[in-house]
Amino acid sequence: MGEKYLTLSELNIEGQFIGFVSNKSNKYKHLQLGIAEGNIKIKIPRNLRCSLASSLVPGEQIRIDAISKLNPRNHKLKLQAYQIQAIGFCVLQQIPPQPKAKIMVCQKSGCMKRGGKGLLSDLEKTLCDRGLSDKVTIEHTDCQKRCSSAPNCVLMLGKKQYKKVHPEAIASLLENHLS
Predict the structure, then answer these.
(1) Half-sphere exposure of 72 (CA within 13 A, CB side)
(2) Distance CA 178, CA 173 (A)
(3) Which of 97, 108, 169, 178 is buried deepest, with most CB atoms within 10 A?
(4) What pairing do the DSSP bridges indicate for beta strands 60-70 and 6-22?
(5) Alpha helices of 56-157 — where are they, by DSSP H?
(6) Which ranges constitute the DSSP H helices of the chain?
(7) From CA 155, how far away is CA 162, in angstroms rounded?
(8) Whole-number mean pLDDT of the chain?
(9) What integer pLDDT is reported at residue 1 of this predicted model?
(10) What is the distance between the alpha carbons of residues 140 and 108, in angstroms, rounded to a whole number?
């Protein structure tokens, strides 16, 4: 059964075309768009895929009219284009990638019974209060094999891992890492 997405809004995005993103079968279904905040992936409608593959050049400035949709189960946002226009060309600038930050929170029953829900809500509240919620990904994981120290959460900052960290300390580490 397919996932149901909730349509949030229509939006217009201008940015620099980075390139196409292919799936496992080497079909281009998405494109990467460079904007000031980083790179975003946008789904291309089937009727535009052939014409865009031959007409878009990396580095080209484009305007995309899209619809944002939300998956209510995993709270992931998806952008789906319905119109793409070239608006100019500039030299391809390498947009520096945002430092990757991810928080992995165990969602198995042992951790949930020992305060996992509270930890997750505290994390989300703290990150929102400090304006960091859009710069970090919270990932729900299966058992992290450290049940004796539940509830478990791991903060990944690039290649560094932090375990057994309080939500306020996570926010401080994120602020230092992302600044």
Answers:
(1) 6
(2) 9
(3) 108
(4) antiparallel
(5) 109-111, 117-129
(6) 46-55, 109-111, 117-129, 167-178
(7) 5
(8) 82
(9) 43
(10) 9
Dihedral angle sign, alpha carbons of residues 28, 30, 34, 37:
negative
Task: Indicate whether 65 pLDDT > 90.
Answer: yes
The two three-digit tokens of residue 131, written as one number? 């304006």
Q: Which of 25, 32, 31 is nearest to 48 (CA)?
A: 31
For residue 91, CA distances in Å to 18, 57, 121 come to 11, 11, 44
pLDDT digits (tens, 9 = 90+) for 19-63: 888 766 667 888 999 888 888 999 998 888 877 777 888 888 999
Q: For the segment 68-108, what is each residue's pLDDT rounded down to a tens digit?
A: 888 878 878 889 999 988 887 655 455 555 557 888 888 88
Residue pair 64/86 in contact (Cβ under 8 Å)? The answer is no
- Count of other CB atoms within 10 angstroms of residue 127: 21
Supply 47's token pair.
């009727």
Exposure string of 24-50, with b = 16+ CB inside 10 Å and e = fewer, is eeeeeebbbbbeeeebbebbbeeeeee
Pull the structure tokens for residue 20: 């196409």
